[in-house]
Amino acid sequence: MAAEATEEKVIQIVSDQLGVPVEEVSRESKFVDDLKADSLDLVELGMEFEDTFDITIPDEDYEKIQTVGDAVDYIEQRQAEA
Amino acid sequence: MSENASVSSDRVTRSTELRRVAVTGGSVVSTLGHSRQEFWERCAAGKSGVTRIGRFVPDEFKVHFAGEVKDFDAAAMVDVPEKELRRMDRFVQFAVVAADRALKEAGLDKDSGDPTRRGVLVGSGIGGLHEIEEQHRTLFERGPRRVSPFMIPKLMVNAASGNISYLFNLKGPNSAVATACASATNAIGDAFRLIQHGQADVMVTGGSEAGITPMGVSGFARMNALSNRNDAPALASRPFDKDRDGFVLGEGAGILVLEDWDHAMNRGAEILGEVLGYGMSSDAYHMTAPDPEGRGAGRAMTFAIQDAGLNVDDIQYVNAHGTSTPLGDKAETAAIKNVFGDHAYKLAVSSTKSQLGHLLGASGGVETIACLMALTEQAAPPTINLDEPGEGCDLDYVPHEARPMKIDAVLNNSFGFGGHNACLVLGKV
Questions:
Q1: Which among B43, B181, B371, B423 is annotated as catalytic?
Q2: pLDDT, tens only, B50-67
Q3: B27: left (phi over 0), alpha (psi -120 to 50) or beta
Q4: Which of these, A24, A46, B55, B246, has the minimum number of CB atoms within 10 Å of its CB?
């Protein structure tokens, strides 16, 4: 999957799950500080990423994903490894 | 009061005198409408809200019908972000919508007044059964890693109270009651006590239930507790009728705003009615069957009337528990006759469950709203489908449609699996 397509999909998922308009979500958006996600939101977002991109995110990797860009890069990397 | 209260400076003085408790708001989510007025119009006209189940295919179940709320869309009914609504089970959404409407009617918004003097106490018999079933399916089909992080906060019985407290900034008492089908009545009674004793000035209270799910329907059907009248759902709930064959599952919410009388007067609120008394007792007889003589039920009625400082002949209308089960309606009739003596035959007694089905832990909430309407509209709501009274059922059950009459005080009865009996007395302003 092309990087742009991954980014677009991630932004759409983040927008839907967190109730934030797509225009207000960018690669730089921080989940907690900017998008007001709480710890349960992050777990649910992780599940959505796993389902959509057919990857597994181990619990210990959650802390590596602080921004939307982190999520896009992480997903790309996991898909490349597969 | 400051939100950081200290015992020395801010302690609420223990009141020696009981305060009067006003009803200043009330709303419902029900098959007969989602406002008090709409609900009352259809209730008084003798309409039934019982229909074939539409939320799942009921064909392989013994019972195909229920008092199912068909036109509910929380996002369109309350100003709460969809993200928040997704974190609520259906029973919580019902409670939040009804609470929002009741608070608006009472003229209380979350930014005025002292939030530490406002509380919430909403009951539910079961809690988030939809969520339990959905996540249980996910667990077995897709494994434990796919279970939602929101499952626990969605399914808790106290999720209705918790969400109402959070959304409407109620920082006083925050509690919940689970006494099966007596839950809402116990909740309202307990909230009444908190205001009487000065522990809150405003309480949002009542009950909410959404148990019309595959497990809910099959569970009650397997107890042989439900009517099987699949060919005529609207005729199935027929309390006190000789052909009654069990109750009909219902769903919805009934939420009231109770308020310290002086607090309501001082802010110029319209007072709709007064909560006068609350009584409770236990059968200690059987987990699901009522005491055939209704002794526990009778004690709760007596305590509520005594607590109100009334005599039995001060009551004109009784909103019966009246579930349409062969044993329950007969036992309740016996209990009413025991408590009221000769006056029993002068009472108007009716069952709103004939129209809505049985809302379980929410039933006492919508039925207290029906009582409030009886007081404000001066009419006894009906018992529909009562064509021929059954053996042992010889009171005036107000068949088919509402009856205009003078009503100064009403008694509301709710009894639950587990032997719980709860009764409230309300009075006209």
A1: B181
A2: 999 999 999 999 999 999
A3: beta
A4: A24
Contact B18, B197 (CB under 8 A): yes
Three-state DSSP class for B99? helix
B268 touching A (Cβ < 8 Å): no
Question: One digit per residue, pLDDT tens: chain A, 82 residues?
Answer: 577 899 999 999 999 999 999 999 999 999 999 999 999 999 999 999 999 999 999 999 999 999 999 999 999 999 998 7
Choosing from A16, A33, A34, A38, the catalytic residue is: A38
Distance from CA of B81 to the nearest CA of A (A): 8
pTM for this entry: 0.95
Angle between helices B295-307 and B326-340 (to 10 degrees): 40
Question: Cα B85 to chain center, whole Å?
Answer: 22
Residues 6+ apart with CB under 8 A from B419: B282, B283, B284, B285, B286, B287, B296
Q: Is the dihedral of CA B41, B45, B392, B249 positive or negative?
A: negative
The pLDDT value recorded for residue B3 is: 75
pLDDT above 80: residue B412 = yes
Question: In the numeric block, which tokens belong to residue B405?
Answer: 């009459």
What are the structure tokens assigned to B318, written together?
């009784």
Residue B319: strand pairing partners: B350, B412
Report ipTM (2 d.p.): 0.89
